[in-house]
Design a protein that fits this description.
Layout: H1 14-41, H2 62-66, H3 73-100, H4 105-123, H5 129-195, E1 205-206, E2 213-214
Antiparallel strand pairs: 1-2
Helix pairs in contact: 1-3, 1-5, 3-4, 4-5
């Protein structure tokens, strides 16, 4: 799952919190998917497929890529049953992505639909094991690149929001600092006025609460 790398330094902004939330949710979705795949992979009914394909999502081996054998009718049935079992796994990923990064979903769905076509062709003995796995790998690579493009766009948008929020925060700080300077200057003027509250020839003094001279 593509991840975002918005730096979290200085004042925390809403954009930073959103980036952090996306990373956490993406990691949780990936963990849930991997655990789901593992549970299906350990089902005894699919043990006969493990030699020909990585049931748990592991990388395809060189031997598996080179295998030009066709699936047997029994293997074809097992392939379709396996694919049916992993459907809830990928649907969970789709649902999670819809929540934290909806723009990921089209790429996920396209890859899943394209993969289904290949699995059916393999089950129906139209392509070899190796050819099917290499086609699946190509589909996944294309989907991964698309998700990375989306992630970069999301990150760019969040960076712009982050900078805008920092500028807004700085403007608030500047306003407060200016107000503090003005208040300090006013305080200094009041202290100066208090020093002037002595009697001078003519017997008048300056009142802090009024701009008039009192005689």
């Amino acid at each position: 799952m593509a991840m975002l790398a918005l730096p979290l330094a200085g004042c925390v902004t809403g954009a930073q919190r959103e980036a952090s939330s996306i990373r956490v949710q993406a990691a949780m979705a990936a963990d849930t998917y991997n655990q789901c795949l593992l549970e299906v992979a350990t089902d005894p009914q699919f043990a006969g497929l493990a030699r020909y394909m990585p049931l748990d999502g592991s990388p395809i081996t060189i031997e598996q890529k080179a295998n030009q054998a066709l699936a047997t009718p029994e293997q074809g049935k097992a392939i379709l049953a396996w694919r049916s079992r992993v459907t809830p796994c990928r649907e969970a990923v789709d649902t999670a992505a819809q929540g934290y990064a909806p723009d990921f979903v089209p790429a996920l769905l396209r890859a899943q639909n394209a993969s289904d076509v290949v699995w059916v062709k393999l089950a129906q003995r139209e392509v070899s094991w190796g050819s099917a796995l290499q086609e699946i790998a190509s589909i996944q690579a294309t989907s991964r690149e698309r998700r990375q493009q989306v992630a970069r766009q999301i990150e760019s948008d969040l960076q712009r929001r982050h900078q805008a929020e920092l500028a807004q925060q700085q403007a608030v700080v500047n306003t407060i600092a200016t107000a503090a300077i003005v208040a300090s200057a006013a305080s200094d003027r009041r202290r100066e006025r208090r020093r002037d509250r002595f009697y001078y020839p003519g017997y008048y003094f300056y009142d802090d609460f009024d701009d008039r001279f009192w005689w």
